[in-house]
Amino acid sequence: MFRTSKALPGIMRVVVIGAGVAGISSALALADDNAVDEVILLEARKNIGGRVSSVTDPISGLELDNCQHACFRVYHRFLQLIARAEAKKSIKLQARTVLTFTDASSGKSSALKDGRLAPPNHMLGSMLKFPFLTLRDKTRMRRVITAFSNMSEEERLALDDETFIDWLRRHRQSDAAIDRFWRFFVLAALNMSLEEASTAVCVLLFKRGLFGDAHAFDVGSFQNHLSGAIDAPFRAALKSAGVDLRCSTLVSRLLWENGSCIGVQVGDTAVNADSVVLATPHHITTRMLSGEGASDPAISVAARTASLGYTALIGLHALYDATKTRADTTFTALVDEPIIQMIFNRNAELSDANQPPDGVQWLSTPVSFADPYLEMSDEELQHEFERVADSMWPESEARMLRFFVVRTKRATCAFPVGSHKLRPSAGDAGAGLALAGDYTDQGWPSTMEGAARSGLVAAAHILEREWNPDSPWPAWPENPHRESEGWVAWDCE
User: Fold this and answer.
1) What are the C-alpha distances in Å from 401 to residues 213, 360, 361, 383, 438?
2) Which of 84, 219, 252, 441 could form a disulfide with 423 if both were Cys (CB 3.0 to 4.6 A apart)?
3) pLDDT by residue (tens digit) across 355-402?
4) Please, are residues 444 and 450 in contact by the beta-carbon 8 Å criterion?
């Protein structure tokens, strides 16, 4: 229904490598355009969705996410992609921003909520009541929030060589404010530590996210496991758009001629193309761009992407034989807990059709910036989880049935100080080739939104269209507002 009629057949063949969020968004955007005759999407794995995926627990048989994922209403291009795939019911979005924090040792909880004031002051009422910081802490935080709001894009990018913790200390933020507020959001949204993260990237998070539009940080949860929420609807959308999706298909190298990319090599077969979108993680991109016959621009980009790193995530899943939490628990951040940073009640997130077996409660914890904890055993991680959960809900008699750990070492691209200059634009690798992925310079960090934006930027580059990624992708459904029809509202009050 979104595909426009073609003026002429056979105008252009595009090969997209990688069926993660970046590759899917690029393939759909290109297939929807009347300038493109054929889109081939090649994926090495049997499933699509890339790092947004699930694994099967061999004991319970449940499909468990590789890590708890959430999106936010400010993920405009990602939510446009969801709507384009007619997958609105895969996600439910908060009807109002509610971010709960809990001190596990005392059981005290408090929620940050948006109010009636205009941004960046829309959370001021709940911030003043926030019990985990002093009034002096909050007063100094207000000055930082004002600084974010007044900061130009040039001033933000100029902070790329300073760690965020140094910047916060330079702006007189207390240790409590750093550890109980700023650190949590950087960990949860950027998967980075304050000690390493670029201030430029962190400012973007707060300027466009938490303190941007009053609705920006409405949390979205997936109503199914990730492969069910992403793989099935996107396969259907790709098929409907006419995209030739080929899974379990490994691309060995790019094909070059006279400095231009002219296709890809798959086994013994050369697949020629007018343009190629390379939508792979940056370590694979580096290898592809360094292959035989590569152009000088491609080799130059590879030298930059080779210097980009990754940060890890650990997903913890706990299954109980009865309800462990209070009845109103959806998710909460944990104060002063370095490992068990958040707990999500998956029963509250999943649709009625996707609930775990009768009587079982499924709790999930994403351990962000998990690199320091990768060597911890499953038993040690379980001990940490149970310590926190038992402290929070001591009255519960629920017994743990299963504890499952998923470690992802290359979960997100790392953006430490000085990383902005390493991020290539879509067209930096030379003729016939466009780059897509969360590592590219598309205006966002390593998130599902950054991946979706990058795929659309790559499509615009191939189509030679002027397009601002802060604007909606033309002809796709709009990103949801709080009153948008067809989207599921999530009441977390």
Assistant:
1) 42, 9, 10, 14, 37
2) 441
3) 999 899 999 999 999 999 999 999 999 999 999 999 999 999 999 999
4) yes
CATH class of domain segment(s) 13-52+226-309+415-490: alpha beta
Amino acid at 64: L
Residue holding tokens 């694979």? 284
Q: Rounded to whole angstroms, how far apart are CA atoms 314 and 224?
A: 19
In sequence order, which residues have a C-beta less than 8 Å from that of residue 152 and are 6 or more positions away?
A: none
On the question of a cis peptide bond just before residue 120, with omega within 30 degrees of 0, the verdict is yes
One-letter-per-residue 3-state SS of 238-265: HHHHCCEEECCCCCCEEEEECCEEEEEE
Cβ distance 154 to 203 under 8 Å? no
Q: Is 150 exposed, middle or buried (0-12, 13-18, 19+ CB in 10 A)?
A: exposed
Tens digit of each residue's pLDDT (9 = 90 or more) over 14-61: 999 999 999 999 999 999 999 999 999 999 999 999 988 898 888 888
The whole-angstrom distance between residue 129's C-alpha and the CA centroid of its chain comes to: 30
List CB contacts of 252: < 8 A, sequence separation 6 or more.
265, 266, 267
Phi, psi of 417 (to 5 degrees): -60, 140
Please give the structure tokens belonging to residue 26: 């690029």
Distance CA 399, CA 182 (A): 34
Report the pLDDT value the prediction gives residue 11, as an integer from 0 to 100: 54
Q: Judging by beta carbons within 10 Å of its beta carbon (0-12, 13-18, 19+), is residue 323 exposed, middle or buried?
A: middle
For 175: left if phi > 0, alpha if psi spans -120 to 50, otherwise beta; the answer is alpha
Annotated domain spans of the chain: 13-52+226-309+415-490, 129-210
Residue 13: which of 250, 237, 263, 249 has the closest Cα?
263
Write the CA distances from 438 to 148, 200, 307, 362, 454, integer angstroms.
Answer: 23, 16, 15, 30, 7
Residue position matching structure tokens 């991946």 = 451
Query: Which residue is associated with the tokens 């001190």?
Result: 103
* Helix extents (H) in 32-134: 76-84, 124-129
What are the residues facing 244 on neighbouring strands?
A: 40
CA–CA gap between residue 314 and residue 408 (Å, rounded)? 6
Question: Which residues touch 342 (CB under 8 Å, ≥6 apart)?
Answer: 68, 188, 331, 332, 333, 334, 365, 366
> What length does the chain have?
493
Distance CA 227, CA 277 (A): 23
Report d(CA 287, CA 278) in Å as an integer: 11
The single residue listed with the structure tokens 């490992």 is 339
DSSP state of 141: H
